[in-house]
Amino acid sequence: MRILIVDDSAMMRKMIRRVFALVDVPIDEIHEAGNGAEAMEVLDLHDIDVLLTDINMPVMTGTELLREIARQPRWRHMRRVIISTDGSAARRDEAAGLDVRCYLEKPFSPEVIRDVLNEVA
User: Which domain holds residue 70?
Assistant: First the structure.
């Protein structure tokens, strides 16, 4: 499994990486990006299976990133997961229209990430 973590907080990206070390899910590659624009650059260079993205980020938000991914047929296979502090009904409804498999609210437990990765793998 090849994963892309997109969050403007380096600490949150590091914490998600640590969680991966704790869960028993086969991971081949982990890539990181600090915003949606950086994520697009990673997507152009690497084949990604699972995208974990925050919503509220500078430069290009997670929603903008997900919209761009939805427009590109080459990324239809990618499973999309949101990890955000914004769990409002409006955000969740918007995500549902962007083929998001799971919407996780921060803070989260390692077990939740494990379960999500097992579900989308």
Answer: 33-109
